[in-house]
Amino acid sequence: MKKNIFVLILLFLFISLAFSQDKELKVYYFPRPPLYINNNNNAEGFVVEIVKNILNNAKINYVFVEMPNKRIEENIKTGEYGCGIGWFKKPEREEFAIFSQPIYKDLKTVIIVNIGKSNIIGNSTTLEKLLKSNLKMGVIDGFSYGKWVDDSIVKYNPNLEKQTVEMARLVNMIAEARLDYTLMGKEEAMYYVNLSKSKEKLKIIDLVDAPEGNQRYIMFSKSVSKDLIEKVNKSITDFLKTNTYKKITSF
C-alpha cells in the first residue's frame, strides 16, 4: 500500500514538472517601432526578433501577446505567467519582477525637435539646458526614459505634456508644432523621422552629455520559475555572441 502511494506521489510530481516545463509563457509587448511592431497580429521588430531567438534557443514554449504598456506592468505585478520584453530595470520594478540579463543596449539619447524651435537649442546642447528651456516636452504616460532622463525630469521640472498615444503619433505632434520636442534612443529617432510624412519639419539633435544608452531586459513575473529564467539567461549569453545578433542590431 505504501509502495503504491509512493509511486503515485512520484507520478504526480513528474506530471506537474512536465506540465510546468511545457506551460506557455506569455510574452507581452506593445507597439513601439522599431522595437516592437504588430504586423497583422504578428509580433515583429528588432527587440522581438532578439527575444524570439533567445526563447527558441532555450526551447521555451511561448506566445506573443500585445497589450498596453501599463497593463503589461500590472500583469507582471499580479503574477501572471509571463514577461515583458525590452524593459528598463528600475528599483521599483524589481520589487515585483525578476529581470533577465541585458538583451540590448540603446544607442545614446537624442532630441527630436520641431525644426522651427531647433534654433533655440542649437546644433547640440546639454540635458539640463534643454529641460530648463521652457520648450514643451512630449512624453508617453507610463514610459521610463531611463534613469538619467527620469531623474533629470524630477530635478528640473520641465514644461511637460504627457500623452497616451503611440510614439509615431507623438513625433507627428512635434512636426505639427503641438509639442516642441521629445527624447529617445538614436535608433528610434532615425526610424520615426524617416517614417514621418512631415520629416522636413523635424530635426535630430545630439545631447553632448548623454551617457551610454540604457540596457534593456526581459522582465519576468515572480510566478516564472528560476530554472526557466536561468535557461533564458544562458541563452542570452550565447546569442549575444552570434552574427545573427550583430545583424539584427546593426542600424
Walk me through the structure.
- The protein has two domains: 22-105 and 214-248, Periplasmic binding protein-like II (D-Maltodextrin-Binding Protein, domain 2); 109-207, Periplasmic binding protein-like II (D-Maltodextrin-Binding Protein, domain 2), CATH 3.40.190.
- Strands 1, 4, 5, 6, 7 and 14 form a six-stranded mixed beta sheet that branches. It has a four-stranded mixed beta sheet with strand order 9-13-8-12.
- It has helices spanning 2-22, 46-57, 69-77, 91-94, 118-121, 127-131, 147-156, 167-175, 186-195, 226-239, 243-248; strands at residues 25-29, 37-39, 42-44, 62-66, 82-87, 97-99, 104-105, 109-114, 124-125, 137-140, 160-163, 181-185, 202-207, 215-221.
- The model is unreliable at 4-20 (pLDDT under 50).
- It has eleven helices and 14 strands.
- With 251 residues, the protein is of the alpha/beta class.
Element layout with pairings:
Blueprint: H1 2-22, E1 25-29, E2 37-39, E3 42-44, H2 46-57, E4 62-66, H3 69-77, E5 82-87, H4 91-94, E6 97-99, E7 104-105, E8 109-114, H5 118-121, E9 124-125, H6 127-131, E10 137-140, H7 147-156, E11 160-163, H8 167-175, E12 181-185, H9 186-195, E13 202-207, E14 215-221, H10 226-239, H11 243-248
Parallel strand pairs: 1-4, 1-5, 9-13, 10-11
Antiparallel strand pairs: 2-3, 5-14, 6-14, 7-14, 8-12, 8-13
Helix pairs in contact: 2-10
